[in-house]
Design a protein that fits this description.
It contains five helices and no strands. It has helices spanning 5-14, 24-32, 36-46, 50-55, 57-76.
Length: 96
């Protein structure tokens, strides 16, 4: 099944939203006319789509890597921000 125009628009947005600056959630509402909740749900669905992978392989692979990193961090009891640390600092990285 081919991607809809909205699905292609979501993938294109995810691949370039930071280029124009501003809060992502505001831009999702203004540019895509979607709630952030619906946007992220649609992204989750698209991550499993072969058509999405064909349309935007870099975006889909990056989203899958981020999802896997978060899953692994939860499984191992770590935060995704500090994947190599068994005990992440409470107030950011420590310097010695």
């Amino acid at each position: 099944m081919a991607l809809s125009d909205k699905e292609r628009e979501v993938l294109d947005f995810e691949g370039s939203w930071w280029k124009e600056g501003g809060p992502k959630e505001v831009r999702i509402r203004e540019q895509l006319q979607l709630s952030p909740t619906r946007y992220y749900a649609l992204l989750q669905e698209l991550m499993e789509s072969a058509e999405a992978m064909e349309h935007s392989p870099l975006v889909v692979r990056r989203m899958r890597r981020m999802r896997e990193r978060r899953r692994r961090a939860r499984f191992e009891g770590r935060t995704a921000a500090y994947p190599g640390s068994p005990n992440p600092p409470a107030n950011g990285p420590r310097t010695r």
